[in-house]
Design a protein that fits this description.
Blueprint lengths: L5 H10 L8 E2 L5 H7 L3 H7 L2 H12 L4 E4 L9 E8 L4 E10 L2 E10 L2 E7 L5 H12 L9 H10 L4 E7 L2 H6 L5 H9 L5 H25 L4 E4 L11 H7 L1 H13 L3 E5 L8 H6 L4 E3 L11 H12 L4 E6 L10 H14 L6 E5 L9 H28 L3
Parallel strand pairs: 1-12, 2-7, 7-8, 8-9, 9-10, 10-11, 11-12
Antiparallel strand pairs: 3-4, 4-5, 5-6
Helix pairs in contact: 2-4, 9-11, 13-14, 14-15
Length: about 400
Amino acid sequence: MKDATPKQRMLNAYLGLPNDRPPVAPEFWVYYPAKLLGLDMIAFSREIPFHIALKKTFEHFHCEGWGIACGSLQLPDVRYSRRETWLDQNTILQQDEISTPFGTLTSATRSQRDEPSWIVERPLKDLHRDLKAWEYLSFGDPSSMDVSGIIRAWNEVGDSYLLEAFLGLPFFDFYASAREGGFETAILEFCDPDMERFLLYLRDRYKEWLAERARVLCDRTPCESLFIGCSWSCNSLLGPALWRKWDKPVIQAVSQTVHARGRLLHLHFHGRCMETIADFAEVGLDCVCPFERPPGGDVAGAEGLAAVERQLRGKTTMNGNVHTVATLIRGTEHDVRREVSEILTAFRDNPRLIVGTGDQVGRETPEENLMAMISEVKKFASHKDESAADRNVQNLP
């Protein structure tokens, strides 16, 4: 296959189809696009649509990539209000009040010109007081979702990269992201026998709701792939046992729904992953990222990559593994090319590969290291073409 578009290369990799070369897809996300466009993080979040920022960045580097677009539930009897306060010249506090038929919820975030926003107050504080309002807000009818923004973004992106519909989070992250105290409060509750019955009820409700949301996104958008994100739902924080109990059943149900409608499913899974690689293939994930190297992850060098390749072969695509800090920020072009070469060698005869980064590219990353990552993949493809041409010449009668 010659001269595929960036989007088609990504889709071929998800499907395990032959490509003219492996896709190379740094996870640019917010830091590098903002730097490239000359915007601080507050201006970046307000002045340019995320899918357009990614489009400009991927086209600047002449590489492949992926991104997400989100739909929004329409809840006519819910009222939102926001108050913004500048704490200093660099920092803004955003305080939200959400009024539902079952009570009012409050939350807050802070944003800085040099950092993306972070949560300082979560809505689910007192379970007895806030639970009904939060459930009403969180489990709105998926058929009410406004998907017009997703469709518009998909059309505007075109073939520049693979734009995916954002489906949601694994169950632990869904609950913990709303719970005051975040991970710390949630992990104590998930380990509390007295909370198990309630959390199992909530998990099963979320599983059905997320599968219905997936059906709506498949039926009402043209997106070829859906995306499940990740905050704390990973081996590094939950551990394999809790992940298998609370998150795997939800992901598996969604995978079945998505595939029944002829679409693809992509999971983001931070940190350590070696103990659950077989699970990724078992539930039918089409792509997983980012398969991080130590110390943050546990896919260590050529041996680790070979183990990943063996367990995923023919079932799931690997995206990632170039170290974003030790190699891309602190390393040399030689270091970058060495890691890329390790990845390409481990997956030499396996089309289910995307050479990506171990999570988001930092803004400190030298552009020459990013160019080295991209050019090394393209060089590998040209060498393959030359080798194939040599073999054809040698086989001539």
